From TrEMBL:
It comes from the Bacteria. InterPro entries: CheY-like_superfamily, LytR-like, LytTR_DNA-bd_dom, Sig_transdc_resp-reg_receiver. Gene3D superfamilies: 3.40.50.2300, LytTr DNA-binding domain. It comes from Niastella soli. Pfam families: LytTR, Response_reg. The keyword Phosphoprotein applies. This is Response regulator transcription factor. Residues 3-116 form the Response regulatory domain. The modification 4-aspartylphosphate is found at D55. Keywords: Phosphoprotein. Residues 144-243 form the HTH LytTR-type domain.
């Protein structure tokens, strides 16, 4: 059995999540439920779980502050939260998982499955990226955590030329001709990169605007990238892309 601790200041949310885990994730045993961050700190230090379900919005100390106070993070982490775009963007950037309340059964099962697969892999670098993104939003982070089938790959953001949708996966093409298959949809990868020089130019493509060599006109037209690749531009995204390529000129 894989042990899990639930941290949430709302007892009903704790009970609901515990019931969902019992019914749909039989490999998970809830070893503790904490309704405050201080109680969670004590529980985690005394009996470290293998998976921590952590609420973000809590009084006294929120979920991110709790993580900062832990001496060691040797568990997998799944955030639970109401809709908070700022927090979610930071979580996505660091390739951590989150569940929106009310928690849906299938989303819970998918998040737990990913956590179980990564159970032996440490999180410190991801947590560091998360906290930097949260508390220093103006700081330019030059690396991003990309989840793959083998684990996590840390890559320099500027090394990405373009990203291509491949069903529920995304292919990232890098300057060194490496191709990385990310176990995230293109929409999720786009959210991770949107604060940098990237743009969605087609349903299937997100490009690094710094790597565009040429735009060829047409109904939507197409881009020629620095590696010689051609990328279609959809008609409804053309104007947005041109504005980004020519700031102040449109």
């Amino acid at each position: 059995m894989i042990t899990a601790t639930i941290v949430d200041d709302e007892p009903l949310c704790c009970e609901s999540l515990a019931t969902l885990l019992e019914n749909y994730c039989p490999a998970i045993k809830v070893s503790d439920i904490c309704v405050s961050a201080p109680a969670a700190l004590k529980s985690i230090s005394e009996h470290p779980p293998q998976i921590l379900f952590l609420d973000i919005e809590m009084p006294q100390m929120n979920g991110f502050e709790l993580l900062e106070r832990l001496q060691e993070i040797n568990f997998q982490l799944i955030f639970t939260t109401s809709y908070d775009q700022y927090a979610i963007k930071a979580i996505q950037f660091s390739a951590l998982d989150y569940l929106l309340k009310p928690i849906e059964r299938e989303e819970l099962k998918a998040a737990v499955q990913k956590a179980v697969q990564r159970i032996q892999r440490p999180l410190p670098e991801q947590i560091e990226m998360l906290l930097q993104k949260l508390y220093h939003p103006t700081m330019s982070l030059n690396k991003i955590a990309i989840p793959t089938l083998e684990g996590l790959q840390m890559i320099f953001i500027e090394s990405v030329i373009f990203c291509k949708a491949e069903s529920n996966y995304t292919i990232l093409v890098l300057k060194n001709k490496q191709r990385i298959t990310a176990s995230r949809t293109l929409k999720e990868v786009e959210a991770m990169l949107e604060d940098h020089s990237f743009a969605r130019v087609h349903n299937s493509w997100v490009v690094n605007l710094n790597e565009v060599e040429k735009y060829v006109k047409g109904e939507g037209g197409y881009l020629i990238m620095s590696d010689g690749s051609t990328i279609d531009v959809s008609r409804n995204r053309k104007e947005m892309m041109l504005k980004k390529l020519q700031p102040g000129k449109m």
